C-alpha cells in the first residue's frame, strides 16, 4: 500500500509537470523516511479500522448462528426426551390398565386419568422453555405411579424442602434420572426402592436421588444427560455421584445442584 501510494503520487506529479515535493526527491533520504513513517501509521490505522469492522460483523454473525444452533439443539434434546416415555412404556401401561379394568374398574379409571395428564404434559406443556418445578414433580409422580403398574415391587418416595412452588426449571429435566433408575429395576426379582428429594433455596436447587439400584454413569443415556445440562447451564451446575448412605453392593446417590436465577 505504501509503495503503491508513493509510485502513484510520484508519477502523478510527473504527468502534471509539477516539480516533485522534497519527499519524492530520492537524494534526500531523511525526508523520504519520515514521509514513509507518517504514511505507514495512517495506512495502518485505516487498515485496522476496516479489519475491526469486518471482524466485528463476522463475530456478530457467528454469534447469532451459534445461538440459533444452540436453540435448535435444545429443541432437539427436548424432543428426544419426550421419546423417553417410549412405546414399550405406553404399551405396558395400557395393557396393565386393561387388566386392571377387569378387576377394579374404579382404579383403572383413575390410572387412565393419570395417564392422560402425563401425555398432556409431555406433548403440550413441555413446549415452553421453562415450567414450574411443582409441575415437573407432579409429572414424575404420575410417571412412577404408572410404572408401578408394571413393576409391582418398586417403591418410591418424593420429598420436598424449601420454596419449590416458586421455582422455574427447563421441562423434562429430571425424567432421565428416573429412567436410569427404572432400567436398574427391570431385571430384579426383589423389591427396589428409591428416594427423590428436592431442596430449593434462594441460591440453588438441589435434586438428590438415592436408591438401591446402580446408575451407570458411563452409559450413552447418562452422557446425554450431562450434555443437556452443559447446554442449559454451562459450567453453572454440579452433578455428584456419591457413595450410598447404606451398605448395599449395588446402589447410588446422585446430587444435582443448579443455580436459581428464575423464581416468581
Short characterization:
With 264 residues, the chain is of the alpha+beta class. Helices cover 56% and strands 16% of the residues.
Q: How would you portray this structure in words?
A:
The model has no long low-confidence stretch (mean pLDDT 77). It is built from seven helices and seven strands; from the N terminus they run H-H-H-H-E-H-E-E-H-E-E-H-E-E. The strands form two sheets. It has a five-stranded mixed beta sheet, covered by helices on one side. A two-stranded antiparallel sheet has the order 1-3. It has helices at residues 2-15, 29-82, 87-103, 105-123, 133-150, 175-185, 220-233; strands spanning 131-132, 154-162, 168-169, 192-200, 204-211, 238-242, 252-259. Helix 3 runs antiparallel to helix 4, helix 3 crosses helix 5 and helix 4 (105-123) packs across helix 5. The chain is of the alpha+beta class. The longest helix is centred in the N-terminal third of the chain and has 54 residues, at 29-82.
Beta-strand portion reads: 15-25%
Query: Would you report the number of β strands?
Result: 7
Low-confidence stretches: none
Our Rg estimate from Cα atoms comes to 33 Å
Describe the structure using short key phrases.
elongated, 7 strands, two-stranded antiparallel sheet, alpha+beta, 7 helices, 264 residues
Amino acid at each position: 500500500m505504501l509503495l503503491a501510494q508513493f509510485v502513484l503520487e510520484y508519477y502523478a506529479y510527473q504527468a502534471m509537470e509539477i516539480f516533485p515535493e522534497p519527499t519524492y526527491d530520492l537524494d534526500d533520504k531523511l525526508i523520504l523516511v519520515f514521509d514513509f513513517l507518517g504514511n505507514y501509521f495512517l495506512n495502518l490505522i485505516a487498515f485496522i479500522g476496516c479489519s475491526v469492522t469486518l471482524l466485528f460483523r463476522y463475530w456478530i454473525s457467528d454469534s447469532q448462528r451459534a445461538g440459533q444452533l444452540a436453540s435448535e439443539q435444545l429443541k432437539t434434546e427436548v424432543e428426544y426426551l419426550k421419546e423417553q416415555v417410549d412405546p414399550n412404556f405406553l404399551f405396558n401401561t395400557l395393557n396393565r390398565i386393561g387388566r386392571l379394568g377387569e378387576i377394579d374398574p374404579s382404579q383403572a379409571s383413575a390410572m387412565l386419568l393419570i395417564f392422560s395428564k402425563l401425555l398432556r404434559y409431555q406433548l403440550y406443556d413441555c413446549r415452553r422453555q421453562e415450567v414450574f418445578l411443582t409441575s415437573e414433580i407432579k409429572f414424575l409422580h404420575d410417571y412412577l405411579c404408572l410404572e408401578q403398574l408394571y413393576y409391582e415391587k418398586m417403591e418410591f418416595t418424593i420429598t420436598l424442602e424449601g420454596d419449590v412452588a416458586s421455582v422455574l426449571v427447563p421441562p423434562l429435566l429430571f425424567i432421565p434420572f428416573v429412567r436410569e433408575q427404572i432400567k436398574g429395576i427391570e431385571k430384579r426379582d426383589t423389591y427396589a426402592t428409591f428416594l427423590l428429594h428436592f431442596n430449593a433455596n434462594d441460591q440453588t436447587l438441589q435434586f438428590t436421588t438415592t436408591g438401591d439400584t446402580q446408575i451407570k454413569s458411563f452409559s450413552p443415556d447418562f452422557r446425554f444427560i450431562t450434555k443437556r445440562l452443559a447446554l442449559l447451564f454451562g459450567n453453572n451446575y454440579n452433578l455428584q455421584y456419591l457413595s450410598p448412605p447404606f451398605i448395599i453392593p449395588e446402589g447410588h446417590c446422585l446430587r444435582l445442584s443448579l443455580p436459581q436465577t428464575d423464581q416468581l
